Amino acid sequence: MPTHSDSERIALLQGTLDLLILRTLLFGPIHGQGIARTIQRQSEEVLVVDHGSLYLALQRLEDSKLISAKWGTSENNRRARFYALTAKGREHLTAKQDQWNRLTRAMGLILEGRGEEA
User: Fold this and answer.
1) Has residue 33 been placed in a domain?
2) Domain that holds residue 28
3) Number of domains in the chain
4) CA distance 68 to 85
5) What global pTM score does this model have?
6) Per-residue pLDDT for 114 more than 90?
7) Best CA proximity match to 49, nearest among 19, 80, 11
8) pLDDT, mean of residues 89-98
């Protein structure tokens, strides 16, 4: 697995952390630390989620009823909040994922020079 220096890591654009969290929860409930590790691992260590940002995003998503949370015991026998995707969150994820796919396709067209010239 490739490793990246701090200078090679990419800052998350506003709103992308919410999308990444919702996508991570698509596979089932997980605690905050597990969410951060999953995002980092799946991005091949490029995206590292700051814990302060993570927990603010989790609170925002919970307040918006896109996720739910309940206390449980983690794999290392510690008390942790486990987050789960709600039906509203699943719908939101689908809509935002479609928007993201359109945006990245458009960016690719421009950056690869395949769009119309001015």
Assistant:
1) yes
2) 6-111
3) 1
4) 6
5) 0.82
6) no
7) 11
8) 96
Residue 74 lies in a domain: yes
pLDDT at 18: 95
- Residue type present at position 10: I
Task: State how far the Cα of 37 lies from the Cα of 55, in Å rounded to an integer.
Answer: 14
Residue 95: inside a domain: yes
Residue 112 has pLDDT above 80, yes or no: yes
Radius of gyration of the chain from its Cα atoms, rounded to whole angstroms: 16
CA distances from 20 to 2, 7, 75, 87 (A): 20, 21, 22, 17
- Across the chain, which distance is largest between two alpha carbons, in Å? 60
Is residue 118 domain-resident?
no
User: What pLDDT does residue 115 have?
Assistant: 57
How do residues 33-82 score in pLDDT, each as one tens digit? Answer: 999 999 999 999 999 999 999 999 999 999 999 999 999 998 889 999 99
Residues written for the chain: 118
Classify 76 as helix, strand or coil: coil
Query: Which residue from 69, 50, 58 is spatially nearest to 18, judged by alpha carbons?
Result: 58
* Paired tokens of 98: 């479609």
